[in-house]
Design goal:
346 residues, 2 domains, Aspartate Aminotransferase, domain 2, 14 helices
């Protein structure tokens, strides 16, 4: 068991609502969102659509459900979507693409850690009566599996150009798009412009207890509303939840650079410990690559010492900085993690 007073860096989803966020939730104006609509949620959805440069947006309990609803609307059974081989949609959504949408994933691999336009071009099939047709391209920014890596606006536009040339719609998994915007200096709307639909999360860097939004054309969102209902995502007094997300948009976006600075500091403190190497972070995720398959042992030892991490695969562990672990806490966590690495990998 971890110590009672541990530093939790397993994910930015471990953040707890701040007192101000709790007050916003308690004071939210609410209504039945399934019947006549919740007023706070309607206001929130309009704000998100505007921030992302889209016609409309729809609130979901989770980013996974929003991604799957987008795929359900964009595709048809028996087709395939093209997606980075290490994408969240591939590895962490319980094969929803297959189980819910009847679609298969065609993995895009390239020489780099994230999908590039040339990789997408090389993976597109030649037309054939013997092969499935493509129906969608899915992007991810920031890229979770690549350690929060950011795809630049130029890179997104190049990927979009390949998809458009193939007459394919584009969906953007932007769970941490807020981080990508901070890292690049571009607006969320500029980064989302490459995609027909985009999902953004509020339960990560923005610190809300739950929630994501799917944004896109109004007709698309009407269909996504049907998918959300089918997937069991209809909510009643959802304004209690969207009030938290509204507070996160108003108060926590501007502090995201602090998380990125904390990630860089953590990387500096642990790089080289026990022979481990850190992937230089673009945003708030720190991936630590181990010289041997001891991820479970490193995570267990770090927890004993007071720092909680996630095992990513046998030779990689992940730490994520967030608003509940400010820079002064990271400066405590770094030497502890370095010690766990040295003791475990010796």
């Amino acid at each position: 068991m971890p110590p009672a007073m541990s530093i939790d860096l397993r994910s930015d989803t471990v953040t707890r609502p701040t007192p101000a966020m709790r007050r916003a939730m308690a004071e939210a104006e609410v209504g039945d969102d399934v019947l006549e609509g919740d007023p706070t949620t309607r206001r929130f959805e309009s704000m998100v659509a505007e921030r992302l440069g889209k016609e409309a947006a729809l609130f979901f309990p989770s980013g996974t459900m929003a991604n799957q609803a987008a795929i359900w609307v964009h595709t048809r059974p028996g087709t395939e979507l093209l997606v980075d081989a290490d994408a969240h949609i591939v590895h962490w959504e319980m094969a929803g693409v297959a189980a819910l949408c009847g679609v298969q994933c065609r993995m895009v691999r390239g020489p780099g850690p994230v999908m590039q336009a040339a990789d997408l071009t090389a993976t597109l099939r030649m037309p054939s009566p013997h092969a499935p047709e493509a129906s969608l391209v899915c992007l991810e920014n920031t890229h979770n599996g690549a350690g929060g890596m950011v795809t630049s606006l130029e890179g997104l536009r190049a990927l979009e150009a390949v998809a458009r040339a193939a007459a394919l719609p584009v969906h953007l998994d932007g769970a941490r798009l807020w981080n990508a915007a901070v890292a690049t200096g571009e607006s969320p709307a500029a980064l989302a412009a490459c995609a027909d639909s985009v999902m953004v999360s509020f339960s990560k860097g923005l610190g809300a207890p739950i929630g994501a939004c799917l944004a896109g054309p109004a007709a698309f969102i009407r269909q996504a509303h049907r998918a959300r209902k089918r997937f069991g995502g209809g909510m009643r007094q959802s304004g209690v939840l969207t009030a938290a997300a509204l507070h996160g948009l108003a108060s926590h976006v501007d502090r995201l650079p602090e998380d990125h600075a904390s990630a860089r500091e953590l990387a500096r403190l642990v790089d080289g410990a026990g022979g481990a190497r850190v992937v230089p972070p673009d945003s708030n995720i720190v991936m630590v690559d181990l010289p041997k398959p001891e991820a479970a042992a490193v995570v267990a030892r770090a927890a004993e010492l007071g720092v909680r991490l996630s095992p990513w695969h046998p030779t990689r562990v992940r730490a994520v900085t967030h608003l509940d672990a400010p820079l002064e806490v990271i400066r405590q966590a770094g030497p502890i993690l370095a010690r766990a690495l040295e003791e475990t990998l010796a």
